[in-house]
Amino acid sequence: MSKSEVFSIELDAETLFRDPDSEGPEAVGTIRIGEFTEAFRASLAYWSADDYRRSWRLAYHRLESADDAISCLITSITDPATSNFVFCWPLYREGEQVFVQNSVIFLDELTEAFDPEAPWASVGPRETITEDGDEISEWHTSMDALRAFFRRPAVR
């Protein structure tokens, strides 16, 4: 497997941040796609660290279900009944390639209620250019990289 095909997403629930502006503690997470790495903070006010990890496994299984599938990895969620947005990384599978973008789901813009058990239902089709003609940041990896990561005994 080449460096460009590396993938991981992890959450450190031992190191918590307490931001006075947030609804509760936040865990530190990291996503790695090839040589790209980004840290994120995951709110623990609505979901536990295990809830995030379970959701990521469901997102992976969603991708495995078809050669042309849309899924997403939720990286921060608060109660959808009272929040405005959810942070996520949409995953677009095309054959054995997976395109990954960083996104925010604005809950008040959805035509149907957000379902935390199927967050990919709130992710639109893959776009690579914004309405203003700007390129959307996107990374790519492979299904083999996701398989290697998610087939490990425990996603941390």
Automatic annotation (TrEMBL):
The record's annotation in InterPro entries points to: CDI_immunity_sf, CdiI_C
Instruction: Tell me where in this chain the CdiI C-terminal domain is found.
Output: 43-149
Q: Which Gene3D superfamilies match?
A: 3.30.2450.20
Q: Which Pfam families does the protein's record reference?
A: CdiI_N
Q: Which domain of life is it from?
A: Bacteria
The name on file for this protein is CdiI C-terminal domain-containing protein
Q: Tell me the classification of the organism that encodes this protein.
A: Bacteria, Bacillati, Actinomycetota, Actinomycetes, Kitasatosporales
